[in-house]
Design a protein that fits this description.
This protein is of the alpha+beta class. The protein has one domain. It contains 3 helices and 4 strands. The strands form 2 sheets. It has a two-stranded antiparallel sheet with strand order 1-2. The longest helix has about 35 residues. The protein is elongated and about 80 Å long.
Length: about 140
């Protein structure tokens, strides 16, 4: 039944967006971390979703939203002049994580809105199923 497929897809999207929000929250919590256990600045993490094509949709091969992997960003670290910082190099520059607060907050809002949209899809689908059963009675 297509309605149950919609429930499955929306539920998988909720899980994927929840993971995305957790990763973004971790990035935000570490935005000023100049030294990790490895001795380097924190690297921004990003969630990569599995791509689907229009052809997949036509062939009904959509199985929901899947997280392909969580990767570290390859953006360069930020250098800030602060010779009094304990992690400053010989020239007085501190290497900060490779992320931007505004980008992270924008991504968090986007993930939150995507999550909200999928909650609405679940609610609408549930209402349609309930009304279908009312008609069948």
């Amino acid at each position: 039944m297509p309605s149950f497929d919609a429930l499955k897809i929306s539920a998988s999207a909720l899980s994927a967006q929840k993971l995305r929000m957790e990763i973004i929250s971790s990035n935000l919590a570490n935005i000023h971390t100049t030294r990790t256990e490895e001795g380097k600045p924190y690297k921004k993490k990003e969630v990569v979703f599995s791509p689907y094509t229009f052809k997949d949709a036509l062939n009904e091969k959509l199985e929901g939203v899947k997280v392909e992997e969580i990767v570290e960003s390859d953006k360069p670290f930020q250098k800030v002049y602060d010779p009094s910082h304990p992690d400053a190099d010989r020239e007085g520059y501190v290497t900060y994580p490779n992320m931007n607060l505004i980008e992270e907050m924008t991504d968090l809002i986007d993930a939150s809105r995507s999550y909200e949209a999928n909650v609405n899809v679940l609610s609408a689908t549930k209402e349609m199923i309930i009304k279908t059963f009312d008609i069948i009675k």
